[in-house]
Design a protein that fits this description.
Radius of gyration: 18 Å
Distance between the termini: 34 Å
Oligomer: single chain
Largest sheet: none
Number of helices: 4
Length: 121
């Protein structure tokens, strides 16, 4: 699936945080995990890898929830004009937003910033 998405010429998500094009794989991954669960629990190394990947996922999503947007999509150049920046592993959005959070502290998720009377919703 990731190879098909990577080969797509128009594979970019604009100024959104994270791999939203991979969201359709959640159902397939849940079915695969359910089918492999007996093997995961039987072999300690697989189970540790499974738990470790879950913790990494929680950390990455936490960075997105509390530190994004961090200016990565616009600096040094807009990813809408230069989508190849999405594949630049020297300056990934995850690390830039984590560094932004360390220096600027936590911010509430944007959904919590809206008041019930706001007309933007």
């Amino acid at each position: 699936m990731s190879i098909v998405l990577a080969k797509n010429v128009l594979w970019w998500g604009g100024a959104s945080y994270g791999p939203r094009y991979f969201s359709e794989t959640c159902v397939a991954l849940a079915i695969l995990t359910g089918g492999l669960w007996p093997q995961l629990t039987r072999h300690k190394a697989f189970f540790v890898a499974f738990i470790g990947s879950g913790l990494i996922s929680i950390a990455i999503n936490g960075i997105g929830a509390f530190f994004a947007p961090c200016g990565w999509a616009d600096e040094p150049a807009s990813i809408d004009r230069y989508p190849e920046r999405l594949w630049d592993w020297r300056d990934p959005e995850i690390l830039r937003c984590a560094k932004f959070g360390v220096y600027n502290g936590f911010k509430p998720p944007e959904i919590l910033l809206y008041r019930s009377g706001d007309s933007d919703l």
